[in-house]
């Protein structure tokens, strides 16, 4: 049970109703996370705007979902792992690639480098080195991509923390957490 009440779209007013209407139009429903976040109009507006901005970003939806899956798995956020796995499949990412992304892996070395960088950002709380950034450039990633992945990690940390801290129930098909060695987490 969520630790905050869910705001229902039908009873919401003002900016919250406007945002929930947009979310409903995008998903065909309003997922539980958004109904929890709707307790703060500022947080809801910020989150939805960030999703929209990154949706048209340089990394593209498939890679963005792989980043989200990696971050969610690292933070043991079952809600975000389930949601972004479903969204990743919708974006054309194979189940095997999404499973690999959970631990920062990919058959593509460029993607693996970017996912590894995203996980290092999480693990080291942003304390990456100039060599870490250069390694991405050496793989062909531009400064735009590098800044965008940092922004996406930050957004995913926000959503992970919302769902974990507020015990938002998962309303997407569940996905098992993974440890880096391939064993199931927990």
Explain this structure to me?
By secondary structure, the chain is mainly α. The chain has helices at 14-27, 32-37, 41-55, 60-74, 78-90, 95-101, 109-123, 130-138, 143-165. The longest helix is centred in the C-terminal third of the chain and has 23 residues, at 143-165.
Secondary structure topology:
Blueprint: H1 14-27, H2 32-37, H3 41-55, H4 60-74, H5 78-90, H6 95-101, H7 109-123, H8 130-138, H9 143-165
Helix pairs in contact: 1-3, 3-9, 4-5, 4-6, 4-7, 4-9, 7-8, 7-9
The 3D shape can be described as globular
Q: CATH first level of the largest domain: which class?
A: Mainly Alpha
Mean pLDDT: 95
- The portion of residues assigned to helices is 55-70%
What's the CATH architecture name of the largest domain?
Up-down Bundle
Task: Fill in the CATH topology of the largest domain.
Answer: AhpD-like
How would you name the CATH homologous superfamily of the largest domain? Answer: AhpD-like
Return the structural class.
mainly alpha
- Taking pLDDT < 50 over at least 5 consecutive residues as the criterion, the unreliable ranges are 182-186
Pfam families: CMD
GO molecular function: peroxiredoxin activity
Domain Carboxymuconolactone decarboxylase-like: 50-123
InterPro entries: AhpD-like (IPR029032), AhpD_core (IPR004675), CMD-like (IPR003779), Uncharacterised_peroxidase-rel (IPR010195)
